Amino acid sequence: MTQTGDLQFESTELSSGFLLWQVTMAWQRSIKKELDKLDITYTQFVLLTTLDSLLLQTNIVSQIDIANHSYTNRMMVSKVLRTLEEKKMIQRKDHPTDTRAKIINLSPFGKESLEKAIIVVKEVDNAFFSVLGPYKGVLDLNMKSLWENTKE
């Protein structure tokens, strides 16, 4: 038994937080290994996917829209979008009504890269989580419940 003050675990491996951390790191290694081949990070993938989803609803998508829809930090989104623009995956144009904002669009190269990345991420997720068999749905529901209860 591990004991520090009032904290007790039969072993570190029984701590939910530790297990989540270990599983997350293993999943991140798997995703990174494959997305590196496309010169894209998972964060870039999420923001491109978010942009693509928003563009199906409207032709005016701002950086703030992307941050809000992806539940991510606005400053981080700004930095990642700059990188995506340098990689020629997105294009920025002046917003028609807000002089402080820019309209964000996927470039043809960005759309092509995203389509490839979606396939890669689905394959990695399917392989990684396949060990759960029929319990994957239960994991998804539990993770969604945790996420819903921690949204700010």
Question: Can you walk me through this structure?
Answer:
The protein is mainly α. The chain has a domain at 27-121: Winged helix-like DNA-binding domain superfamily/Winged helix DNA-binding domain (Arc Repressor Mutant, subunit A), CATH 1.10.10. It is built from six helices and four strands, in the order ββααααββαα. Strands 1-2 form a two-stranded antiparallel sheet. The protein has a two-stranded antiparallel sheet with strand order 3-4. Strand 1 and strand 2 form a beta hairpin. Helix 2 (42-55) packs across helix 3, helix 2 (42-55) crosses helix 5 (108-129) and helix 3 (63-70) crosses helix 4 (74-86). It is globular, with a radius of gyration of 19 Å. The model has no long low-confidence stretch (mean pLDDT 92).
Uncertain stretches: none
- Strand fraction band? 5-15%
> Going across the major beta sheet, what is the strand order?
1-2
Q: What multimeric state do the chains show? A: single chain
What's the total count of β strands? Answer: 4
Helix content: 55-70%
Biggest sheet statistics = 2 strands, antiparallel
**From the 3D coordinates, which CATH architecture of the domain at 27-121 would you assign?**
Orthogonal Bundle
| Anisotropy-based shape | globular
CATH superfamily of the domain at 27-121: Winged helix-like DNA-binding domain superfamily/Winged helix DNA-binding domain
Query: What would the CATH topology of the domain at 27-121 be?
Result: Arc Repressor Mutant, subunit A
Q: Report, as a whole number of angstroms, the end-to-end distance.
A: 35 Å
Output the CATH class name of the domain at 27-121: Mainly Alpha
Number of helical stretches of at least 4 residues:
6
Cα-based radius of gyration, to the nearest Å? 19 Å
Mean pLDDT: 92
Order of helices and strands: EEHHHHEEHH
Q: Could you say which structural class the secondary elements and strand pairing correspond to? A: mainly alpha
